[in-house]
Structure formats: structure tokens, C-alpha cells
Amino acid sequence: MTVQDVARVAMTPRGRKKREAILDAGVKVFMAEGYAASMDRVAAEAGVAKQTLYSHFGSKEGLFHALFDRYKQQTLRVFDPAGDLATELAAFGEDLLRRIFDPEILGVQRLMIAQAAAFPDLARIFYAAGPGHVRATLAAFLRNRMEAGALRPDDAAAAAEDLIGLLQGGRRQRHLFGVEPAPESSELRGMAERAVTIFLRAYTTR
């Protein structure tokens, strides 16, 4: 089947529904078994024929790329350049925390890290479109606020790293090691506001 044939299958309403079911199954199976999982397992989990899976993605690598593309599309909120600084940063932080503790996103990140040696180019693209894009977007916002005088002049990229580090804290690491559950949704705003308060103490002009 050609690339054009695969695209035509995926574009029909029925095809899109099956495609999403296969992607959901791919995340679940790859998270449980790693990239070595068979396409038969993914097809069984999705409730489709193996040929249907191949008609949509062409190969296991094609499915892996599609999982990456779906992750990449889950973008963060857009900063309001005229918005209140603390409010904008807290909203950004809450959104980031929701994403970094999302089970599917965590699963895709673990999978990508595990397969980075096998797919180095894809891993670099994944980083640039995910964590790298988040850092660059935040740095650009902070740089604008520094130039406007709301934050003291500094290295905006380093400042972005500082805020993201405060947001992730030790909670995410403990969760990744399975020693602490992910925070409840009701906790996220408070976590974000605390990180932003600490950040602004360090970077607000005096």
C-alpha cells in the first residue's frame, strides 16, 4: 500500500475512528511491553485486524511516529503578552503540571527515552517539539517581560529553566519512581502558584 493509500484510509470518518483506537492501543501496549511488543498485540488490543493496522500506519515504525505526532499536537496554552505576569505564569505552570503528570504523556516520554538510541533523529525531534518547545516559549515570554522592566534583566533561557525546575520539583521524580502518586487536579494550581511566587522573588525587579 502506498503512502497515498494509507492517507486515504485514515481520512474517512470510520478510518479516523479506527486510527485513534489503534493509537490508544499502541500507547497502552508499548507502555506495558516496550517497543519490542508485536503488532499482533496492538491489533488485538485495538480490536482490529492486523491488516487494518498496517493499512493505517504501514509498519511498527510508522505507528511509533504517529504516536509521536499525536503527542506533539497537544500544545500548551498561549501566553497573553499584556496579561498579569503572576497570573500568566501560574496558568502556564498549571497547564505544564497537568501535562507532565498525564499518564499517556508520561508513557510516551518513557518510551521515547527507552528508544532514543534506536531512533536518535526522532528523539531529537521529539525533544525539540515537546520539552524544548516549552522552554523556548517560556523563555521568549520572560525575555519580553525583562525588556519591559517587569523582571530584572537576566538570561531568559536560564530563567525558564529555573521556573520549570521549580514547577517539576521532586514530586515528578518521586512519581516516576513509583513512590508517590500523581497530584490531584485540585492540587495543580496551588503547586504552580507556589513555584511562581518563589520564582518572582528571585527575578522581580526591586
Task: Write a concise synopsis of the structure shown.
This protein has 206 residues and is mainly α. Helix content is 74%, strand content 0%. It starts with a helix and ends with a helix.
Give the topology.
Elements lengths: L2 H9 L1 H21 L5 H8 L3 H8 L2 H13 L12 H16 L2 H12 L5 H10 L1 H17 L8 H13 L2 H6 L8 H19 L3
Helix pairs in contact: 2-3, 2-7, 6-12, 8-9, 9-10, 10-12
Describe the structure.
The chain is 74% helix and 0% strand. It has 206 residues and is mainly alpha-helical. It is elongated. The termini are far apart.
Which labels suit this protein?
single chain; 206 residues; mainly alpha; elongated
Structural class: mainly alpha
Q: Give the overall average pLDDT.
A: 87
Shape: elongated
What's the order of the H and E elements?
A: HHHHHHHHHHHH
Strand content: under 5%
Helix content: over 70%
For the sheet with most strands, the description reads: none
Low-confidence stretches: none
> Can you count the beta strands?
0
Distance between the termini: 64 Å
Put simply, the count of helices is: 12
Radius of gyration: 20 Å
